[in-house]
Design brief:
The protein is mostly helical and 106 residues long. It contains five helices and no strands.
Length: 106
């Protein structure tokens, strides 16, 4: 389950970077603080740190309540899936096809 969570976070980072490159803004106030105060490197580190904290917290919970930890991680995967789909819809709705393809390097 952690693999799916991590993969969706990588997609989130890539899509967020693409959205930012065409004039969008970071909606998460925590990671936005790092982006706008310290730059892209700090933004990426903050996103990675938040993912690490979530995984570590789930592992700690798993030692006490395995079923609860599984539910929490499944919820996290579901939430990130919805977020990634939302980011895709933003790109599809707000960018002309040619501009999107240019951003993707095609």
């Amino acid at each position: 389950m952690y693999g799916g969570y991590l993969l969706l976070n990588v997609f989130d980072l890539a899509l967020t970077s693409l959205i930012l490159s065409v004039g969008g803004a970071e909606a998460n106030p925590v990671t936005g603080y790092f982006l706008y105060s310290f730059g892209a490197g700090a933004f990426i580190l903050a996103k990675m740190a938040l993912v690490a904290v979530a995984v570590i917290a789930c592992e700690a919970l798993r030692t006490l309540r395995p079923q609860a930890a599984s539910k929490v991680m499944h919820a996290g995967v579901f939430i990130y899936f919805i977020l990634v789909m939302y980011e895709c819809s933003l790109l599809i709705r707000h960018l002309p096809h040619a501009q999107l393809m240019a951003q993707l390097g095609r």
